[in-house]
Design goal:
The chain is an alpha/beta fold. It has 14 helices and 15 strands. The strands form five sheets. A six-stranded parallel beta sheet has the order 7-6-3-10-9-8. It has a three-stranded mixed beta sheet with strand order 11-13-12, sandwiched between helices. Helix 8 packs parallel to helix 9 and helix 12 packs across helix 13. The relative contact order is 0.09.
């Protein structure tokens, strides 16, 4: 049973039935609809309305149960999910990645050091293995496999893809839709040693989406980990809070006072698309990243998060004009209509309309007839 919406709750209230005590305000809300909407968001107590029917109270309490428990392991939280699809609300705790270190094997120290030192940076986030599970011994800040087995978790040993995937989906469905407490424990998938790392990566990628709370790998491969962590970051990003980078001046290829100057918003995907192109240019450049709540260029403009006044304020704050002699800023092609407005607001610079797509920057620069002196 999913959580009740405000409209579903309202149907039980006096105002919906046009009964006595309609919009009585005794709950502190101006209308029954306002109360229903607040109750759906758990912003007000169910006891505030004296006229709720008993059947609604029972349904509300049942629907408000947390579908899946949250379990913390050495500071790593797993579980706590309450939806099947992230667009319904959001996913809460990312699929944790654990690696087994068997201390009975002669090369365990080498593997341990590889796991501990593995780290990648993507979209302003450092990604690493979340947990180390030891066998035949103990290590600081690690958990033994025997200790792991004693936690309120469900283990699925991956042997056959269809069986594992069906079980993962069935467990999450029972937990979320039926609020069945028999299926409320977080689930981890245990991957035994395999020679087929491509298949391992493919299966784990699917299980991230549906619906493993944690992986425990006997194998450790940097390429597999990088792939899974990249996918996981995308899946577990809150769709209501876009990934964004810091608003500042970024430098590529050791720019000087005469180098090219580009501008974009702080939407992470836009930034990295542009940054990759600027890194590969044969000339140095600056990239001015403006604050836009993580919105893409056109979205930021339409939401008034990218305005001429905001750009002028950003340049003044960064004191950029004093750093360069070049007085030409290249803006995204999607903002061509802002050229005159920007030039009117930003007296120190001329605006040059650039490309719509990042991949075209290289050809744009080759054909750029611009005097940087």
């Amino acid at each position: 049973m999913t959580e009740l919406s405000g409209l579903q709750i309202f149907k039980y209230l006096p105002a919906a039935k046009k009964a006595e005590h309609t919009n009585c305000k005794e709950c502190g809300c101006p209308t029954c609809m306002a109360y229903a909407l607040k109750l759906a968001k758990h912003q007000i107590g169910i006891d505030k309305c004296s006229y709720l029917p008993d059947d609604l109270k029972e349904i509300f309490i049942q629907s408000s149960k947390q579908p899946q428990k949250t379990v913390e392991i050495k500071g790593v939280k797993i579980g706590g999910e309450n939806v099947l699809y992230r667009h319904e609300k959001t996913f809460i705790n990312k699929t944790a990645i654990a690696v087994v270190i068997d201390m009975a094997k002669p090369d365990w120290k080498e593997k341990y050091n590889r796991v501990k030192n593995f780290e990648i940076k993507r979209v302003n986030e450092f990604l690493k293995v979340d947990l180390i599970v030891t066998q035949n011994g103990k290590l600081p800040n690690c958990i033994t496999y025997d200790e792991l087995k004693k936690l309120p978790l469900k283990e699925i040993v991956d042997e056959e893809f269809s069986k594992t995937s069906e079980e993962l989906i069935a467990i999450r469905t029972k937990a979320v839709l039926e609020k069945d407490e028999n299926f409320s424990n977080p689930v981890y998938v245990y991957f035994k040693h395999t020679q087929d790392l491509n298949l391992l990566c493919a299966k784990a990628s699917f299980y991230i989406c549906k619906y493993a709370n944690m992986f425990v790998f006997e194998d450790f491969d940097e390429a597999v980990m990088t792939t899974l962590m990249t996918l996981r970051q995308n899946i577990f990003t809150d769709p209501q809070k876009p990934l964004q980078v810091e608003s500042k001046i970024y430098e590529f290829n050791n720019p000087d006072e005469n180098s090219l100057i580009f501008m974009t918003t702080n939407f992470a995907l836009t930034f990295y698309a542009v940054a990759n192109e600027l890194e590969s240019l044969p000339v140095p450049s600056y990239l001015i990243v403006t604050p836009a709540d993580g919105m893409s260029v056109l979205t930021a403009w339409s939401a008034e998060k990218f305005t001429a006044q905001m750009v002028a304020k950003t340049l003044k704050k960064l004191d950029f004009a004093s750093r360069v002699k070049n007085r030409k800023i290249i803006i995204p092609g999607l903002l061509a209509h802002m050229k005159e407005e920007l030039e009117e607001e930003i007296k120190d610079f001329e605006i040059v309309v650039g490309t719509i797509e990042a991949f075209a920057i290289s050809d744009f620069v080759k054909n750029l007839d611009i005097n940087l002196e």
